[in-house]
Amino acid sequence: MATTPLVSTIIPTYNRETLIAQAVDSVLAQTFPNVEVIVVDDGSTDATSEVLARYGDRIRVISQRNAGPAAARNRGIAAANGEFIAFLDSDDLWLPEKLERQVNLLERLGNGVPCCLSNIRLSYQNRELTSFEIAWLNPAIDEGVWRNPGEVLATRFVLFNQGVVVRHDVLEEIGGFDERFWLLEDYDLALRLSLKGDWAFIRDPLVIWRESATSSLSREAAQDDRRWKQPLVDILEKQLRGASGKGRDDRREKWLRHEVKRARRQLGVARIGQMSFAGASIVSKGLEKLEQYRSALHRRSPWFPRMQAEEFRVAN
After folding, report:
1. 7-213: what fold?
2. Cβ of 156: how many Cβ atoms within 10 Å?
3. Are strands 60-64 and 35-42 parallel, antiparallel or unpaired?
4. Calpha distance 19→104 (Å, rounded)
5. What is the pLDDT of residues 42-72, one digit of tens each?
6. Nearest 5°: CA angle at 22, between 19 and 25?
7. In the chain, where are the structural domains located?
8. 57 CB burial (10 A radius; 0-12, 13-18, 19+)
């Protein structure tokens, strides 16, 4: 009789005393029966540790000096025992059937599929969207195989950490998270993971992301575009260096080149906005509008990469 695989859930947290319990409870409420919960406290100075202590041996808590979300997740990966790894940010929630549906799909697809990504419901103060909508992913089927994740991810960010389940051995093979990045570290990981083959996906939102609970890093980046545009350039250039001349996926490399140019322009616009000369803000806003117009036209063009999704069929 087949055994139920273990899923290690890693929750990095920093000063989340009012939210961390909700995240942990959503993992403990999963319908999947074999889950270990690892919370990495990344140097919290509030009462986060006291809240976590109430769970006793139902969770494992690892404490470290503040080193950023990538380092915290890597610490959790190193301590994980599961065949599968899942991540949850400490301000978000999982629906009860998330792990069960994702692991079942990965088990049916086999070891050639490195991960499964679910849709995510984004709960804003005045509206709701999904991560698939924002990333222009429109599969016509409920779940299945995503054939071109590398090409799609080369052209846009898809909300990743909260919605993914990854095979542990693949995650170790690609080296986990790059700790140099404190923002967009999940985008960097997703780009590298996309080189490992087709992904599984589930169109239903199985995660709730909450705007009111966004991290201090995200708030700071929203106030200064350079905070996230510089790592975006760095990540895309890193990916392009790894792809150039290797012939693994010419279409992916083509789109990486396109996106590097676009990201550099956006970073330049953000830098102009911070300059002190008269009219810098007006020039920056005008150039930003131009970039938005160019991006909108690009997304509507017939050559913009669309998600290629297929149903999973058992071979005869």
Report:
1. Spore Coat Polysaccharide Biosynthesis Protein SpsA; Chain A (3.90.550)
2. 17
3. parallel
4. 29
5. 999 999 999 999 999 999 999 999 999 999 9
6. 150
7. 7-213, 224-300
8. exposed
